[in-house]
Write a structure and sequence with these properties.
- The chain has 215 residues and is of the alpha+beta class.
- The protein has one domain: L-fuculose-1-phosphate Aldolase (3-Layer(aba) Sandwich), CATH 3.40.225.
- The protein is 36% helix and 13% strand.
- The chain is built from 6 helices and 6 strands.
- A 6-stranded antiparallel sheet has the order 3-2-1-4-6-5, sandwiched between helices.
- Strand 1 and strand 2 form a beta hairpin.
- The protein is globular.
- The protein binds zinc ion.
- The site of zinc ion has 7 residues, from loops.
Length: 215
């Protein structure tokens, strides 16, 4: 796919995050792997002022955070870069301070398998990391370790990350994660949700390999 098309898709994804409430202010960011680099949303730029040419480009192998583009990359570029390094299957990353997922991260609690859709994340439990300040190597190390082979993770007292083979898949998972957390928290207000077993979730994971793929 041509790079200008990817930039346009990133802008559309940002606008969708605003429209659906997944994004809060300028806190969300997303990236797409393009060969040995990543395109990432710029820092401190409201999504309604964003244009495709503002996406910053960074080499995934670069240690120094050098970038090309008219604006500096999101201050959270480090965990984007490190996830791409650790996970060759990941082609896109969405990070948001979505209200429900972030609320659960404030409790430092994982999301258990109260709903079967958690199988879309290649895990029976979405883990919540300890806290580390945003933009730091400490946070990035926590994220990579706790994400493991899963497609989503909660960041303690911070927010959430969803990953995908494509931007479409990462964004779909970000919405799913926010939805399941919301449903779980509603259920918790009425009682104690029944948690599906690891075996029940693992049996579903292969069925999600191509779920939601429209391309
Ligand atoms: Zn953040």
């Amino acid at each position: 796919m041509q790079v200008h098309v990817i930039r346009g898709e990133m802008l559309a994804a940002c606008q969708e995050m605003n429209r659906t409430g997944l994004n809060q202010g300028t806190s969300g960011n997303l990236s797409v792997r393009v060969d040995g680099s990543m395109l990432i949303t710029p820092t401190a730029t409201p999504y309604d002022q964003l244009t495709p040419d503002m996406m910053a480009s960074m080499r995934i192998g670069d240690e120094k955070g050098r970038f090309t583009g008219p604006r500096a990359p999101s201050s959270e570029w480090r965990f984007h870069r490190d996830i791409y390094r650790a996970r060759s299957d990941v082609g896109a990353i969405v990070h948001a301070h979505a209200p429900y997922a972030t609320a659960l991260s404030m409790l430092r609690k994982p999301l258990p398998a109260a709903h079967y859709m958690i199988a879309a994340f290649n895990t029976h439990e979405i883990i919540c990391t300890d806290y580390a300040p945003y933009g730091t190597a400490d946070l990035s190390a926590l994220v990579v370790a706790r994400l493991g082979e899963a497609h989503g993770v909660l960041l303690g007292s911070h927010g959430m990350i969803a990953v995908g083979e494509t931007l479409e898949r990462a964004l779909w998972r970000a919405h799913e994660l926010e939805t399941i957390v919301r449903q779980y928290m509603l259920a918790c207000q009425m009682g104690e949700p029944v948690i599906l077993s690891k075996e029940e979730i693992e049996a579903l994971i292969p069925r999600f390999a191509a779920y939601g793929v429209t391309a």
